[in-house]
Amino acid sequence: MRIRNITGGALAACFAVSVLTSTAASAAGNGAPSGAHYNLNIIGVSKDKSAEMSGNQGHRIFVPLYGKPKIWLSESPSFEVYDANGTDSNGASFGLPNPDPDADGITEYSVYARALGTPGGSSTTTTCAYDDVLGETYCSTLSMVLVRDAKGGKSSFTNYSRELLYVYQDFDGDGIVDRLPLFGDSAYQFYWDYDNQGLKLAQLRFYEISTDVN
User: Fold this and answer.
1) What DSSP string runs through 99-116?
2) What does the domain layout of the chain look like in residue ranges?
């Protein structure tokens, strides 16, 4: 399978990070790197939320325990939850910096994730690009799949930067899979398609280290 990088006219993110390889970062006992990070909890709930959660700034997003909500993504200088309610028809909204402004396959930060909460349940998260002019949606061929062991026990972090920060898709139908980073083309709106099948807690951590997805 051939993969081609593509980029467009996205704004440069005002986010300074240390340029380290993900393999060079010292790992904690739970599989995550050591050091400062932004924590985001995606919480599965059995009842829809009715409270206003726009501009909420918390480090969590609520989604249906069973369902397929959208988490809309927008370019931001820092990580911010704009709308924490993913149980309504509008979906949730999360801001994050451009992960790969040079579109060279080396990220300026990395995303690690793990499944927590009550034993059992899983979720599949796929990064998508939506062209609202043409009405076309392109979802990545790669997805983050989190499974909470039915027996519980220790849950370790895994690097999902490739799955969450890029869309891998044949955008122009020429048989070559293109790799488009989040916010790499201003023609698209980006979102995570979060397919929840009973997972009560997906924990994401964003670290100031780079990952080479080439």
Assistant:
1) S-TT-SSB-SSEEEEEEE
2) 35-207
